[in-house]
Amino acid sequence: MAEDSHRSSVLFESPDRSLIVLDIPASLEESQVLPSQTPRRRIVSAEPPAAPYPTPEPSRYGGGDRSALTSPAAQLAELMTAATVSSALEDLSNSYSYSGPFHRDRLVQPQPQSSAAISVLPPLIPDKAKPLHGSVEALSDSFHNSAPKFDLVILDPPWPNRSVRRKKDNYATVSNLIEMSNLLLQIPLAAHLTPDGLVAVWITNKHSIHDFLTSPTGLFASWGLEFVTEWTWLKVAASGEPLYDIESTWRKPWEKLIIAKRIGSEKPETLKTKVIVAVPDVHSRKPNLRDLFQDVLGKDCLGLEIFARNLTAGWWSWGNEVLRFQQAEHWKDIE
């Protein structure tokens, strides 16, 4: 449709919108302007991986059979996700005869900038974006007193993860799920969600985290929510092949977005399971989902992103690193 002509981030979309090929940098560029406006800047990105990465060997993780340490429910969940993404790739190739492209041309910085050149200029704030720069603990009361009700809340929590704790420039991960519960329950989410609003949470591939959210005594229940569906981001190389072997025991080529609604509210008719096929960008950059959720909630939906690393035009964003990718060195004006 003409009104969606600006959505260059969507490289392919199945008729039922259950399967999408998305360009992550383009989705972020589109998020910097209001819906239906043309992006004014390009984001500096990483080179897309040309081919899948080698599958990690078990010996790197101390040896042994990981499946022996995984519950039957977790093994079943992994098998179901593997079947879902395999079916999506098969449909993409056979049913829709789509063989690419799987990413758009990227603006890649040839040399890293010196620290003296970084963050000298003020951050770039998109139109009608509202940044809350600070931690959940520090700003919870201020948020509760000033924030409106949102149609959509997206969270990307710092889940317990040993490999992430070794990296720099990330949200500090918590040690365990008890600490995570204490952190997330400080967010007055129920008071700031519209009656028909949705909550979407990025999770790692640990089944315990899925249970932490969706069990009868889990976080969603504490917020008065119930699980609706999930979207899967399938990470692929530039070739369109999964970034890791789908059958790999130790590293999965996907991340999941778990979506919930208020208990007893109507499920949006267009909210369905979705596979998003996308080539990763720099570490910690997720696809911007504003346009995909506007297909569900309407063009005027108001969103809040928590533990955000960038801003979205027209939305609120909250977190310690909320301006991380808004610094001028990450962007170049379109001439």
From TrEMBL:
GO cellular component, one term: nucleus
InterPro entries: DNA_methylase_N6_adenine_CS, MT-A70-like, SAM-dependent_MTases_sf
GO biological process: methylation
Chain spans, region Disordered: 32-68
Listed GO MF terms: methyltransferase activity; nucleic acid binding
Matching SUPFAM superfamilies: S-adenosyl-L-methionine-dependent methyltransferases
Family: Belongs to the MT-A70-like family.
Name of protein: Mt-a70 family
